[in-house]
Amino acid sequence: MALTITNLSKTYPNGVQALKNLTLTIPNVMFGLLGPNGAGKSSLMRTIATLQDPDEGSIDLDGLDVLARKDDVRRILGYLPQEFGVYPKISATDLLHHLAVMKGITNKGERTAMVDAILNQTNLWDYRKKSLSTYSGGMKQRFGIAQALLANPKLIIVDEPTAGLDPAERNRFLNLLSSVGAGVTVILSTHIVQDVRELCPRMAIISNGELLLEGAPNDALNSLAGRIWSKVVASDDELRALEANFQVVSSHLVGGLHEVRVFADSSPGDGFRSVESDLEDVYFINLARQGKR
Ligand code: ADP
Hints:
Layout (H helix, E strand, L loop, with lengths): L2 E9 L5 E10 L3 E5 L6 H8 L7 E6 L2 E2 L4 H6 L1 E4 L11 H11 L5 H14 L15 H12 L6 E5 L7 H12 L6 E6 L2 H7 L2 E6 L2 E6 L1 H6 L5 E6 L2 H10 L1 E8 L2 E7 L9 E2 L4 H14 L1
Helix pairs in contact: 3-4, 5-6
The structure holds adenosine-5'-diphosphate.
The site of adenosine-5'-diphosphate (ADP) has 12 residues, from helix 1.
């Protein structure tokens, strides 16, 4: 399903403008919504998930008016919020059955088949009888996906799902998400560039409630080809001098030394080598462009 978001704006009662006239089309793929903390990602996700209304704008899901027909949207939606927070002292099986009943799956045989299949798919089968309160962070997130998969959703929204997971848990979680299947639109909201690089054929970058870029990660990378330069600098003074004269995209410590990446049409000077652009460059360059406006 394709989602068309048009001129969406939202200002909270405290005056924070979380969404500023945002227009974006999300096609039927795994779509990465990338942005720093406070960008407006959760506000957008909650609005699409029919949990809050915008001040202005519209959202269309293959002809369905999302803001007007919330019940219809909820029937085809799977949502893993940023703070799922519900890990009571009952088993995964029992809670999934309970949530499936609430989603209208009243036939016990149908429900059991669905819950069992989802427990297998999310690798929770062996732990299905254990209390959710004893689950690790990674297991909780997999349970979060399990509940989002109930009732065969056509649109799945996952909000910052990998924050707080260790590398192995994160890997397992991303593999699970990528297996969710064709025909389903998945919106993955994250501030972790790597999540988008690994999973998403299309992406958008938002910051301060505005859309900065929308497209295929590969196209964004190609647009920077030959213009990213790297060097390990010898001192903090050299780093400061570079920052004063060039667009330093990022600076990482490697073995205690600063490795800088500079965005420039030609080599910034001695010792720089041309390197492949990565999605983090795209991300930082777009955020910096916004900052300069
Ligand atoms: P993200 O998910 O990208 O971190 P959010 O949508 O959570 O961004 O927040 C966008 C901005 O709106 C932030 O400045 C945040 O503090 C503010 N905000 C979010 N929710 C509320 C709320 N319920 N009331 C007031 N301000 C909010």
